[in-house]
Amino acid sequence: MFINVGKSKWMKVILFITTFAFVGTAFVALVLYKLSGNIQGVAQVNGKEIPVAEFYYQVTLITNQMESQGVDTSPLKKQIYADALRNVVEQELLFQEAQREGLEATKEEVKRYLLDIEAFKENGKFSKDRYLAFLSQVNLTPPFFEEILRKELSVRHLLTLQKVGFYVSEDEMNTFINKQLAKITGEFVLIKVPEYTPSQKEIKEYYKKNIKDFAGKKGKLIVVYRIDIKGLGSEKAQKKAQEIYKALKSNNAVKTGEGVQKIFEDVVYDNKAKLPENLLKELKNLSDNKRILLVSEEDHYYLIKYVKDVSKPLPLEKVKKEITGKLKREYKNKKEKELYEELKGIVPQIKDLKNLAYNYKGEIKKIKEETAQSVAMEFGISQDDLGKIVRGEQGKILGPFKTTTGILIGKVEKISPPEKERKEEMEKLLRPILTENKYRTVIQMLIDKLKEESEIIINRRFLQ
Predict the structure, then answer these.
(1) Helix (H, G, I), strand (E, B) or coil at 222
(2) What is the DSSP secondary structure assignment for residue 214, as one 8-state letter?
(3) Position 207 in a domain
(4) Across the beta sheet with 260-269, what order do the strands follow?
(5) How far is C-alpha 448 from the chain's CA centre?
(6) How far apart are CA 330 and CA 324, in angstroms?
(7) Fewer CB within 10 Å, N side or C side of the chain?
(8) Does 16 score more than 50 pLDDT?
(9) Who wins on pLDDT, 222 or 19?
(10) Cα–Cα distance list, 308 to 93, 245, 290, 291 (Å)
(11) What is the number of helices (H) and of strands (E) in the chain?
(12) Domain containing residue 337: CATH number
C-alpha cells in the first residue's frame, strides 16, 4: 500500500513524528486478545475501530527505522506486522485514556504543531508543497495524517502528565550504586561440573533422533504421470488427463494401465532428476498454492503433483561439532542443576569453605576490597544474586549462586561503602538512565492495566 520511503528525504520526518519508540521493541502475544474476521479495521478497542491505513503507517515507521539501521527487513515481515499491530492497539488505548482525562489535543494544537515541523519548512516558513509531497510519499490524505497527529499529541499530553513529579529517589539510587560499587572482602568457592565429552555412539543416536533439525539441501517431493496420446488417441488421452487431474486434486488414487504410467515419484533437488528437461523447468511453478501442473507435448501429457517440500539432512560429519556442543551443554545444565540442589541442602551446615572446596574439587578465590561490579564480572553473577551478596550477613556463608562459570558459594567478611568520588561520578551518569527506565516501566504498567480493562478485538487477517 505504501511506497518504500527507506531512502527518501522524508524518512526522518516519519521517524520524528511517532511517539511510540518506547513500545516498539518488545514482542507481545496478540493472540491473548479476542480474534475476529468480521471487523473492517485492523482492530477494535472498546468499540472503536482502528483503520487499516493507520496500521500500514506503523508498518512503514518500523520498517524504515530498521532499514535506517542497516537491518534487512525482508525476512521480518511477520514480526514487523505483529509490532505494528501492537503499537496501534496501545496507541488507541492511551488515546482513549487521554480523552477520559480531558487531555485530548485540539485541532488548533495540531495546526500549530504541523506548521512548526522543520521538514515542512522552506526559508523558515511552512511549505504546503513540501507537506503534500511528504503525504504523497507515504500515501496519506491530509485529514488522515492530521488525525494521526491529533492522536499522538493527545498521548504526549497524557505521558507528560504521568511524568510530572516523577523521579528516582535517593534510596533507589544509593541501592543501585552500592550494589555496583560497594567493596567486598572475603572468599568464594567456585564449583564446576567436570568436563564431559560425548561418545561416538551418543552423537550418532542424537543425530538419528533429531535428524529433522539438521536440514540441508531443500527439494520438492513430486509425482509424475505420463499419458500416451499416440497410443490412446487424442480424445481418449484428454479424457484420461481430466480423470487423473481430478483424482490428484481430490487426493484420490490414480488408476494406471493402458496408456497411463507413473514415471516418477521422488524428491527433486536443484531441479536435477531423470525427467525431461521441459518438465524440470516447470517445477519452479509448483508450490502449496499450485500443487498440480499439466504439461502437454505432441505425443504425451504429463501431470505433475507437488506433495511437499523436503529437506535433505546434512551428513553426520558436517554437524558432528554442533551435536557435540549441544550434548555438552545439555549435560552441563543437567549436572549443574543437580549440583545446585545438592549444595542448597548442605550450605546452611557449612562452616569451613576449605572442606567444601576439597570435597567438590572447587577453587577458592580470595577477594580484598574489590568492587561488587568487578566480582560480578569475574564470576558471571546475576544482578539479583549480586544484591543478595552485598546485602548478605557478613561472616556468614552465602549461596549457592548459579553463575555463568559454575556454582558459587561465598563468605563475605566485610562490605565497604563506595568511594565518594566514584559514587558521585556514577550517579551523574546513571540518574537519567535509571529515571528513563523507571518511567518506561510505569508507562508499560499503565498500558497493561488498560489492556486488562478494555475490550480488544483483533482482525485475524492481520495475524497471518
Answers:
(1) strand
(2) S
(3) no
(4) 260-269, 215-228, 300-313, 292-296
(5) 19
(6) 10
(7) C
(8) no
(9) 222
(10) 43, 18, 11, 9
(11) 16, 14
(12) 3.10.50
Same domain for 305 and 353?
A: no
Contact 279, 302 (CB under 8 A): yes
pLDDT in tens, 131-186: 898 888 778 889 999 999 999 999 999 888 887 766 777 777 777 777 788 889 99
Q: Are 163 and 111 in contact (CB under 8 A)?
A: no
Q: What is the pLDDT of residue 4?
A: 37
- Give me the pLDDT at residue 28, please: 38
Helix (H) or strand (E) holding 330: helix 316-346
Within this chain, do residues 220 and 345 fall inside the same structural domain, yes or no? no
Instruction: Inform me whether the pLDDT recorded for 44 exceeds 70.
Output: yes
| DSSP secondary structure letters along 253-314 | PPPPBTTEEEEEEEEEETTBSSS-HHHHHHGGG-SSS--EEEEE-SSEEEEEEEEEEEEEEP
Whether 286 and 376 share a structural domain: no
Amino acid found at 5: V
Q: 302 and 328: one domain? A: no
Residue 174 domain-assigned (yes or no): no
- Same domain, yes or no, for 22 and 148? yes
In sequence order, the β-bridge partners of residue 363 are 190
Q: What is the pLDDT of residue 34?
A: 60
Are 214 and 404 spatial neighbours (Cβ–Cβ below 8 Å)? no
pLDDT at 408: 94
Contact 85/107 with Cβ under 8 angstroms?
no
CA distances, 295 to each of 225, 245, 305 (Å): 10, 12, 11
Mean pLDDT for the stretch of residues 382-394: 87
Whether 15 and 138 map to the same domain: the answer is yes
* CA 16/CA 196 separation, integer angstroms: 53
Domain that holds residue 31: 11-165+443-463
Whole-number pLDDT of residue 175: 76
Nearest to 84 by CA among 34, 39, 23: 23
pLDDT of residue 19: 40
Can you tell me which residue has the cell 519452479? 284
Q: How many CA atoms lie within 13 A of 308 on its CB side?
A: 3
How many distinct structural domains can be found in the chain?
Answer: 3
On whether residue 206 sits in a domain, the answer given is: no
* 30, pLDDT greater than 50: no
Residue 384 and residue 337 share a domain:
yes
Calculate the dihedral angle through the C-alpha atoms of 380, 384, 387, 393, rounding to the nearest 10 degrees. -100
**Rounded to two decimals, what is the model's pTM?**
0.51
Position 247 in a domain: yes
pLDDT tens across 278-289, in order? 888 888 888 877
Closest C-alpha among 11, 150, 1, 26 to residue 86:
26
Q: Are residues 144 and 26 in the same domain?
A: yes
Q: State phi, psi for 191 to the nearest 5 degrees.
A: -110, 125
